[in-house]
Write a structure and sequence with these properties.
By secondary structure, the protein is of the alpha/beta class. It has a single domain, classed as Alpha-Beta Complex (Spore Coat Polysaccharide Biosynthesis Protein SpsA, Chain A), CATH 3.90.550. Helix content is 29%, strand content 23%. It is built from 7 helices and 12 strands. Strands 3-2-1-4-9-6-10 form a 7-stranded mixed sheet. Strands 5-11-7-8-12 form a 5-stranded mixed sheet. Helix 2 runs antiparallel to helix 7 and helix 6 crosses helix 7. It is globular and about 50 Å long. The relative contact order is 0.18.
Length: 274
């Protein structure tokens, strides 16, 4: 069986014709001008970039370091302010596996992703989705490869278990071990180059029934912060208040190669001694 090419997809503050129904607006339809004003606000983008650079990107770098056929796609709007686009291009220059793909206003996220996937001409492809404020465990790709050996193309893989992390005042974190039936983090679909299937075309992740894999291992971190684009959701979880050091220690076994204490220090609301 051919090796799997991993292609992650992240919508990085995209504004297109679908944007006026974003859950960020809590069910209230907004004009496209309103969407642009909110999505491209400097305060919002500053927070999103900080989270991505300090937590998400290092996790992806760990995965890329173990798989030569790993790619990650950042879907962005052509009219994202230039200073923020420049920052993304700097990231791509530092990481050859990281790619930018522009999404014109009249192009869907699904079709934009498929455009990028067409560059891969051979073997199987696993296209997965990841929000710009979620992180994946270091065993993610290995878990997909193990499961794919017995799964057909068109199979949708879901990772039910992960961590919910919420920064609190005074530099602490609320940490939850969470199980969700249809989490978006890492959700992906297997296909082949001659019959491409991309993940956003599957529809709303809450309505997708996939094959749960790695059910006993936390595979993601979902960060809850001031500019989340969706609600916290429901699920079975326990929760404690942690210092930066103790939160990092609790999650570290599943995030090998990542300095979680450093990452959490960078995104904490206010740093305090551990």
């Amino acid at each position: 069986m051919n090796d799997i090419t991993f292609v992650g997809s992240t919508r990085f503050s995209v504004v297109n014709f679908q944007s006026n129904s974003f859950s960020a607006f809590r069910g209230q339809r907004a004009s496209i001008d309103d969407v642009r004003r909110i999505i491209f606000a400097d305060d919002r983008l500053d927070e999103r970039f900080r989270i991505f650079e300090e937590l998400v990107l290092p996790c992806l770098a760990v995965l890329a370091s173990t798989k030569s056929n790993f790619h990650h796609l950042l879907l962005i709007s052509p009219d994202m302010p230039a200073k923020w686009q420049g920052r993304l291009h700097d990231m791509c220059r530092a990481h050859e596996w990281l790619h930018i793909h522009h999404v014109p206003f009249d192009l869907s996220i699904s079709n934009a992703t498929k455009e990028f996937l067409k560059r891969f001409q051979n073997g199987r492809i696993f296209n997965f989705r990841l929000d710009d404020d979620d992180a994946l465990a270091s065993g993610f790709c290995d878990a997909v490869e193990a499961a794919a050996k017995t799964l057909d193309d068109g199979s949708v893989l879901v990772f039910e278990r992960g961590f919910r992390l919420r920064p609190l005042e005074s530099g602490r974190f609320m940490l939850s071990s969470k199980r969700r039936a249809s989490p978006s983090a890492g959700l992906g679909v297997l296909s082949s180059a001659n019959n491409l299937i991309e993940v956003y075309g599957l529809g709303n992740h809450n309505r997708i029934t996939g094959v749960p894999i790695a059910r006993n291992h936390p595979m993601w971190i979902r960060l809850i912060h001031s500019s989340n684009d969706s609600s916290d959701g429901v699920g079975h979880w326990w929760s404690w208040r942690h210092s930066i050091r103790s939160a990092a220690k609790a999650m570290q076994p599943w995030f090998v190669g990542l300095d979680l204490e450093r990452a959490l220090s960078s995104i904490a609301i206010e740093r305090l001694p551990n």
